[in-house]
Amino acid sequence: MAFEGLSEKLQGVFSALKGKGSLSEADIDTAMREVKLALLEADVNFKVVKEFVASVKEKSLGAEVTKSLTPAQQVIKIVNQELIDLMGGANSKITYSPSGFTVIMMVGLQGTGKTTTCGKLAAWFKQNGKKPMLCACDIYRPAAIDQLEVVGKSVNTPVYADRDSEKPVEIVKAAKHDAQIKGFDILIVDTAGRLQIDEELMDELEDIKTEIRPHEILLVVDALTGQDAVNAAKGFDEKLGIDGIIMTKMDGDSRGGAALSAKKVTGKPVKFIGMGEKMDALELFHPERMASRILGMGDILSLIETAEAAFDEEQAARLESKIRKNQFTLEDFLEQMGQIKKMGGLAKIMGMLPGMSAKGIDDAQIAKGEQEFREMEAIIQSMTKAERNDTKLLNASRRKRIAAGSGQPVSKINNLIKKYEEARKMMKKFSKPGAKLPNMFKGMQ
Fold first, then answer.
1. How far apart (Å, rounded) are the C-alpha atoms in residues 208 and 167?
2. How many CA atoms lie within 13 A of 95 on its CB side?
């Protein structure tokens, strides 16, 4: 999980402060020393850490304590705001062309996940009502064009490619013309990468930039490379001029120092973060939400957005109707488990809840919960439709058959039925006239 190590350490520092009625300068010095170590261990740029700690200390000592906040809460509030400012303040949005046709130029070193990210970005644009086309301009890396075509197919987005051309500038020129006449409103250009920044690479990228005049040049960097990612961003910006950064593999970096350092060191914002291998695992980077997650305050806005994207409104209305009529079945239960999977599973959901980040999440418990979900899914899927809709049909012989089909012992089938019956009893009270459903259903309609 992104920032897991940093989040755990910072929450430990503030937990120690909360027990104090008032804070002396020595208390703040001790806390800032721990904060400094936590940031350095998270691979945040040393100069950035030094400035961050100095600013927090200065504001903590000079702050007038709000009556509604304890001194410790005041320090946490200052750290939260400093983290938001460090990561760029408000989230930076994509710049669209006033004419309606926008060109996005994707650049980066080899191995950062640039080609896959082109597909993820196309999926994100489609989700936001745009009509993108991909352009394959990497004519050097073996199978790069094939890879982009596979990626494009997976997100149902066409790819412009010319395997016979040896001039990327000519390819992108033709792609731009083709996309415009076919009515696409976004062209995402996948350019060639290198193992390191060199003159040949930059000359080619500058030629492409001059030809297509992109509205956005987005640099794709690998979060797992830490400060090397930040240095790469600085190098690309100095030679080419970039508009923003897409940081991949954030889900695999428990430190997150690159994301914290990037804006301060390069002056360019992180616009998106890659949070998984699936094609929908690209998220807008919200500094205020990320700061909240780091400090264990959760990310309810992202959780709501995830739920809204995953939840079917008609299904929600149908579910409410069934609950009101006391007709909730195991078939409906199976549907709800599918919704949780669409939201990214228990780990992702819990990571967005206040107080559930870092140590608040027990990996073993999450693993156990997800295992139980898989077992319940297998059990319900091994039932006939009639059995799912009426558990009274489940006599001993049927339960043995379901156990054999799902690979689970009969005791787990019995336990599932027991939990389901308990849930039905609880839901029965919502079927009474005038009963109010939980807020979750109001938000899903």
1. 10
2. 13
Burial class (CB in 10 A: 0-12, 13-18, 19+), 67: exposed
Q: Which of 270, 224, 262, 267 is nearest to 245 (CA)?
A: 270
Q: List, in order, residues 6 or more apart from 168 with CB less than 8 Å away.
A: 137, 138, 139, 191, 192, 204, 207, 208
Alpha-carbon span 231 to 219, nearest angstrom: 12
Read off the pLDDT of residues 183-210 as tens digits, 9 standing for 90 and up.
999 999 999 888 778 888 888 999 999 9
Altogether, the residues listed in the chain come to a count of: 445
In this predicted model, what pLDDT tens digit does every residue of 155-176 receive, in sequence order?
999 999 998 888 999 999 999 9
What are the pLDDT digits (tens) for 329-385?
A: 887 777 776 666 666 555 555 555 555 544 445 556 666 767 887 888 889 889 998
Per cent of the chain over pLDDT 70 is 77
Which amino acid type is present at position 338? G
Q: Please calculate the CA angle 251-257-259 and round it to the nearest 5 degrees.
A: 70
User: Six-digit token pair at 101?
Assistant: 């046709």
Distance of alpha carbon 232 from alpha carbon 242, whole angstroms: 11
Return the structure tokens found at 417. Answer: 């039925």
In this predicted structure, what is the pLDDT of residue 371?
Answer: 80
Q: How far is Cα 87 from Cα 90, in angstroms, rounded to an integer? A: 9
The per-residue pLDDT for range 248-262, each reduced to its tens digit, is 988 776 667 788 888
134: phi then psi, degrees, rounded to nearest 5: -100, 150
